Each structure stands twice: as structure tokens, then as C-alpha cells.
Protein 1
Amino acid sequence: MTPRNDRSDPPPPALYTPLVWAGGGLLLTVTVWFTSMVALFRGFGSLFF
Amino acid sequence: MADNVLKGWIGLRTRARGFGLPFFASPLIPAALLGAIGGDEMIVAGSALGFGLTMLAARVLRRGRRGDTDLAAWIMAAATGSAAGLAAGMGVIFPFVLATGAFFGTRMSFQALPETAPPPPPVPPTPPGPIELARERVARLEGTAMRLNEPRVLGVAQAMRGVLDDLSERPERLPQARRFLSVHLDGLERITERLEGGAAPPERLPALLEDLSRTAGELRERLRREETEALDIQVKVMSDRLREEGY
């Protein structure tokens, strides 16, 4: 009796995966980076107002 | 070719996973400093919360277990939302929009990176076997006998300990001694409870304790005899087999 192979290898990642990474990086930039920069400008502003 | 390049790229990104996240939130550090100098507690609190949660998300990502990317995405959403609401003063709705963007941004940034299975749950300790339980009961009996200054009860308990020692060496014989242990231990426990309660020992007690000690000895003897008989049979079978095989 041949042993049954229950383990299946995960499917190879799609070739467009780097584009998804780039999209994620862009999204993080316009959300986290943008928020942090606004907070930084507000910090500057708190010195004068 | 393209597959190999992508695999190599995934390997690189897996090794550096999470290191880039604090970079996105790095302006929050000078923001917190400036907010502290300017005396604006909200900016300080929002920046500290935002950067702290980002560091936590990076740490979770570095762990790389299954589900950690989703968890890190939620933490990044909380970091961005709190920084936008408190430090950047963006009102109520906009922080939620930014948090949603940070959530999906984190998930997309770490898509297709391998995650390991979580460690198996710790194995629960095995419950003590019947011999261990009986040992504990015998130890309690010995303690009570010492307190009551009853050398005869102590003698019976020690005889039973001898039986348990034999059974520990040959646990396969336990079914033969189970009833003995149950009857003797139960009986002796009841006797010591009564004695501890202040009951005067009846006249028949010494004879009973003597019987208990004797039967414990007999049981040990029987177990040993059976073991010897089993060895005899084994030797005989082995000898016959060798003879049959012509050695």
C-alpha cells in the first residue's frame, strides 16, 4: 500500500505580489507617514500658539 | 526565472519583516518632543501611543507566526487612529479612515511572506497513577500514626508501603493488588480517623492490625512467587526453543 501524502505544498506566490507590496507601502505612507507629519507640524505649532 | 527572483525577494523581505514599520511612524518622536516643549499633552500622548503601538506591531511581525500579520495590521490601525485623533487633531471620522488605510496597508505590505505554525499548547501534567495515589494515602497514614504514637498502625502502613514498592517495580501486577490496597487502605484510614477522633482502641484492634500486616506480607510473597514462576516458564520456553532450533 502506498502511503498517502496528506501534506500539500502552498501554492507559489503570484507574480504580481511585488505590486501588492508596493501598494501596501504606498498606503502606509499616505496614512501612517501622513498622520505622523501632521502631528509633527502640530508639535511645531504648539511652540508658537 | 521570475519565480526564483520572487522567492529570493520573499526571503529577503521575510528576514527584514517589520523593520520598516517604525520608519513610517518616526516623525512621531520629534512631534512628541515638540509637543512636550510646547506643553500640549494631547500631542505627547498621541505620539507616544502611535509610536509605541507601531513598535509593538513590528515586534509581532518579527515573530512571524500564523495570524501575526493580521494582528500587526490591527495594531497599526490602532496606532494610526490614536495618533491621528490625539496628536494630529483630525477630529473623529478622519482617524478611522486613516486607521482603515493603515490596516490594509500593513496587510498588503506583508502579503505572501511565510508564517510559521503557532507552538503546540503545553501538555497538561499527567494525573498521578493509582500507585502514586496509594503512596500519598499511606504517607498520610504514617503521619497520623506518628502523631497518635501508634506503632502498630505505623507497622501496617510500612507493610503496605512495601507492597507499593513491589508494585512500582512490577506495575503489571497492579490488578491483582488493587482490591487489597482498596480494602486495606480504606479500612486503615477509617481506623486512624476514629482513633484521631478520640476513640478508645477496642480489644480486637491489635489482632486486626496484626492480620493486616500479615496479609500485606503474604501479598508481597505471592507477587514475588508469581514473578519467579513467570521467570521459570520463560527459561523453560527459551531452553525448549534453543533445543528445537538445534543450537
Note: Chain B has a mean pLDDT of 87.
Protein 2
Amino acid sequence: MKILFKMKALPIIMVMLGVLGCKSNALEQKYNPNEFTLMVAASNHGEVGPCG
Amino acid sequence: MNIGIFDLAAGPEFIVDMQNLAEFPFISSNIVDTETGKQMFPSTAIVETHDQKLGFVGVTVGDKRLKKFEFLDPVETVKAAVAELKGQVDLIFLLANVDDKTEIILAETIEDIDFIIRSKTSSVQRNPKQHNGIVTIKIGKQGKYAAALKIRNVDSVNNMVNVSAQYKRIKFTENRLKAMSRDLKEGETLESHYATDQKRLELIAKLRADLIKNRETITTLKNSFYLEAIPLNDKIEDTPEVAVIVADYMPKVKKAKAGDKVAGKH
């Protein structure tokens, strides 16, 4: 049951991270256009990324 | 997103439902639906930035308790997927839901991977390690951390170079200069403000030189990367739309936890 609930929370976590990633990338264009940023995270033992 | 073993706990139908809802690809090179005998997800995904093509491969070590799924050999499937991506992309990222032993085998066997992004680990390595020229990123589990992986000046010749020390020094130097600038009047420079304080002037000159040197290193080095681990605590502002979904969901979690306690579960 607990795992099932965690599973259901997974998309929520992923959406939050995705939004965070886009926001962070937009703010960090400081040093060079040749730079890009990937946002990565392990949610429930899967990963989410990249963004931007 | 790479599919890990916990993502499969609720069975094939559930993960397929999630896949259909998601606006991003689910990938895995070695998960097969036992009933149909077919691979469930694409092995790879390609994402384009403004000037780079990035290839992603997914893999899991699997779990024998998940009877509805079969897990093919991780090394062989990743090898095939990487071979398929090579030549099409500038960098290859392996999203690996594997244990430490399998990670080392993958890093030692498959040369063309640039980054291994690990799950199935509780480690948070703020300074990523390199093995056989491949950088491994470990940023914990269960969404406790996100990480910003900044990559610059990609070429196909050099190994990746960790410039975390330079980034940290730039941040530190900027903060020191900012702190010293608090009392400046309009039009005043740090040098004019501290004109009679020789020691402070020397420090300002040193900090400015340091800033130029580290920025230059970062802008000229080929294939440099920097990882910033971000704890997803209360300091991270919620996205309003997502906060509403979470608020709606939490009573159900509390109810389920209360049910577990009554049933004597832990």
C-alpha cells in the first residue's frame, strides 16, 4: 500500500522538478551561451531530466 | 525518465497509464512485459539544446519479485543502445537504476558513455567521481535532492573536466565583493570607498583577479562540467499549480498512514 501511494506521488514530484529545472536554467545564463544545464533527480528510484 | 523497479510495483497497466499521462518520454533498454514478450519502453531518447544533441539511455537491474516483467542483461542492452546513439548525438547519458557493482561493469565495458546518472543509491555526491573517463552522478533518492548539472564547451575529443572548485570560488568571491559593497554610496566604487584602507584595497584587488582567472578557466576549458546539489526543502518555492495538487493529495496519504498504524504495519 505504501509503495502504491509513493508511486502515485511520482508524477507530482516529477512535475515539480521539471518546473524547477526550467526556472533554474532561465536564471543561469551568466557565463556563456555554450553552457547548458540538466536538472536531474532520483524520485522513487527513477530519474527525471533534462530541462533546457 | 528512466524506469526504476519501484516504478513497476503497481504492475504494467499502471506504468503505461503514467506514461500516457506524462509529457516526457519514459525510457528503459531492458524491461520486457512477460505476458506479451515485448520491450515496454524505448531504449533511448534524444533531447536537443540550442547547440547540442544529447542522447539518453535507460536501464535497471530489475527485481525477481516483479513477476510481470522480465529484465534483460543490462550490459548487453546498454551496449546496443549506446551503439545506436553514437554518431547521432554529442553526449551520451546513461540513466542507471543499478547497484554499485553493475555501475562499475557498465563504466568499464562501454566506453562511449559520458555520464552515468545513478539511482538505487542513497548517496549524494556533491563532487562527482570519474571512472574510466565516465562521470558518475549520484544525487540520492525519493526526490530529496535535485541537481543542476552544468556542461560547457562540448567537444568530441577531451574527457569531461570537473570545474566545481572554480564555480564555488566564483560564488564565494562574488559574495565577498557584494558584502563589501553594502555601504557604498551612489557612484562610489569599492576602491574609492576604501581608499585609505590599504589592506582592504589589496583584498579587493586579489578578489577581482581571482574572479577574472576562474571565469576565464571556465569559459576556455573544453568539456567542463559542474554539479550543484539542491536540497528540495521548504526554501524551494512551490509552483502554485503543483501545490494545489499536492494539497489535494495529502489527506489521502494521512488517511492511509493512519490505516497502517491501526493494522499494526510499519
Note: Chain A touches chain B through 45 residues (CB under 8 Å).
